[in-house]
Amino acid sequence: MSLNTDPKRCPLCGDGNACGLASPSRSAECWCFSKPANPDALKRLPADLCNQACLCPRCLQRLHDETTPDAP
């Protein structure tokens, strides 16, 4: 596990992840609750990054696109 993981930053790219739970001043749920990740995509993350911080929307979409087969 990385001791420098910032819950407000995407663990893959380091950009802000807009996590609703990482900011105590916000009372809203995180945006990712309405955008569930593909379990196969999440398996591709390094183990030390799992459950440390939310991915940013761009990285979540990229993982989804890389894991989802193209339609015929």
Description:
There is one protein chain. It contains 2 helices and no strands. 21% of the residues lie in helices and 0% in strands. The protein has one domain (1-72). It has helices at 39-42, 57-67. The longest helix is centred in the C-terminal third of the chain and has 11 residues, at 57-67. The chain is mainly alpha-helical. Pfam families: Cys_rich_CWC. InterPro entries: Cys_rich_CWC. This is Cysteine-rich CWC.
Give the helix/strand layout.
Blueprint (H helix, E strand, L loop, with lengths): L38 H4 L14 H11 L5
**Largest sheet at a glance?**
none
As for the number of domains, it is: 1
The structure class reads: mainly alpha
Query: What is the percent of helical residues?
Result: 10-25%
Count of helical regions: 2
From the N-terminal CA to the C-terminal CA, the straight-line distance is: 39 Å
Tell the overall outline: globular
Report the strand count.
0
Oligomer: single chain
Low-pLDDT residue spans? none
Q: Mean pLDDT, nearest integer?
A: 80
In short:
The chain contains 2 helices and no strands.
Observed structural traits:
mainly alpha; 2 helices
